[in-house]
Specification:
Helices cover 29% and strands 28% of the residues. The protein is an alpha/beta fold. It folds into 2 domains: 162 residues, 3-Layer(bba) Sandwich (FAD/NAD(P)-binding domain); 145 residues, D-Amino Acid Oxidase, Chain A, domain 2, CATH 3.30.9.10. Helix 1 runs parallel beside helix 6, helix 1 runs parallel beside helix 9 and helix 3 packs across helix 9. The longest helix is centred in the N-terminal third of the chain and has 23 residues. It binds flavin-adenine dinucleotide.
Length: 373
């Protein structure tokens, strides 16, 4: 079978890699959208202490976080040393120490069937500052040692390179679909790409791609702006992820890079601009949480579009009446966590193997608008 994948974000790149490893004939097409979610993402892998209670969501992020170490080993065995992944741990901060006790209780319960969380440790304000020097004074935290950070762009590139190493073809271009006698035809620049099986992992842009197949696909783009700072001379590579109170976070990468994110902007469409209000929000919250960042150099502000479905859950499944088309989407704000795992499972589904995901929770019909008759 010839498999064609449209979309080389984290989801499509992982699917291509796993399919190519299984020996399949794979072509992956991507038009390299500047707003690709994967390249803009922060890269926090720490699902266990989230307050979100949805079980279908949690089972994917939990499996996703657990899958990372073995994926990284596979990529390293394929010669990919720059995967952007490091298990640096995460610290959740709160001014109210009772809230930190609650968090420890919740975390200990979840650890029972998620040993990959590692050690859960209460930290004094001084201990927090020793691990992440720019942080505000006097704020205690809880440290989770199994948490990680990943550079989404670096991991995606490693997956695509390794897929190509296993025989996959990468095509740069804008894919267009047509329906012809109950088959989906893929074209790039008017050239047909022969396929027996199509996998659509086109993120926030999937609706326009699927429309010619007669599918009214409901995916919404949520815009995110995210700030990259440079602390030049600081040895930042081991700094943990910081999850303060509220919706903002901080994390660090090698060579002095500190990332502060992110905005959540609905209803602005695919507006690629870095805005005054966006930068103001990011800087205000970052400096409130970590006054020690005041002298950092502003390096860049990235913009990405998170793909959301109407019920905020991923969808995974075959298109009604077009069983040769497999669609996965809606990874939302946690796609770097679950994407590599979901991609590995998509590869199994594409090969007609059984998946360990209970697909009934992620039915594609949840993101297909019903015709009003
Ligand atoms: P994308 O990465 O958007 O990829 C879709 C691809 O499809 C694009 O490359 C595009 O070029 C291609 N495409 C679309 N249409 C076509 C076409 N017609 N022809 C060819 N190519 C096409 N998740 C976490 O787990 N932890 C985090 O800390 C985190 N932080 C985030 C911070 C920000 C600022 C953002 C934006 C997201 C964050 N996420 C995080 C979420 C995560 O990034 C996304 O859920 C995930 O990257 C989605 O991956 P995807 O492959 O589905 O989509």
């Amino acid at each position: 079978k010839k498999h064609v994948i449209i979309g080389a974000g984290i989801l499509g790149a992982s699917t291509a890699y796993h399919l190519a490893r299984l020996g399949a004939d794979v072509t992956i097409i991507d038009r390299e959208e500047p707003g690709q979610a994967t390249q803009a993402a922060a890269g926090i892998i720490c699902p266990w202490i989230s307050q979100r209670r949805n079980k279908a969501w949690y089972s994917l992020v939990k499996a996703g976080a657990a899958y990372y170490p073995s994926l990284i080993r596979k990529l390293e065995a394929d010669g990919e040393s720059n995967t952007g992944y490091a298990k640096v741990g995460a610290i959740s901060l709160h001014a109210d120490s009772k809230k930190l006790d609650d968090l420890i209780n919740r975390a200990e319960k979840r650890k029972v069937d998620a040993p990959e969380m590692g050690e859960i440790t209460r930290l004094s304000a001084e201990e927090v500052q020793a691990l992440f020097p720019p942080i505000a004074e006097g704020v205690e935290g809880v440290h989770v040692s199994g948490a990680a950070r990943v550079d989404g762009g670096a991991l995606k590139d490693a997956l695509v390179r390794a897929a190509v190493g296993h025989g996959a073809k990468y095509v740069f271009g804008d894919a267009v679909l047509q329906k012809h006698e109950n088959q989906a035809i893929v074209q790039v620049d008017d050239v047909d790409y022969d396929s027996d099986h199509l996998i659509v992992t086109a993120g926030a842009w999937a609706d326009e791609l699927l429309a010619p197949l007669g599918i009214n696909f409901e995916v919404k783009a949520q815009k995110a702006q995210i700030l990259h700072l440079d602390m030049e001379s600081k040895a930042t590579e081991d700094w943990p992820v910081i999850m303060p109170q509220g919706d903002q976070y901080l994390l660090a990468f090698p060579n002095g890079r500190v990332v502060a994110g992110a905005t959540h902007e609905d209803e602005v469409g695919f507006d690629p601009r870095v805005t005054a209000a966006g930068v103001s929000e990011l800087l205000t919250k970052a400096l409130h949480n970590a006054p020690g960042l005041a002298d950092a150099t502003v390096q860049t502000v990235k913009v990405g579009f998170r793909p959301f479905t109407p019920n905020f859950l991923p969808v995974i499944g075959r298109v009604p009446n077009l069983p040769s088309v497999l669609v996965a989407n809606g990874l939302g704000a946690s796609g770097l966590t679950m994407g590599p795992y979901v991609g590995a499972e998509l590869a199994k589904l594409a090969m007609d193997e059984e998946s360990s995901i209970d697909l009934s929770h992620y039915d594609l019909s949840n993101a297909i608008k019903k015709e009003i008759v």
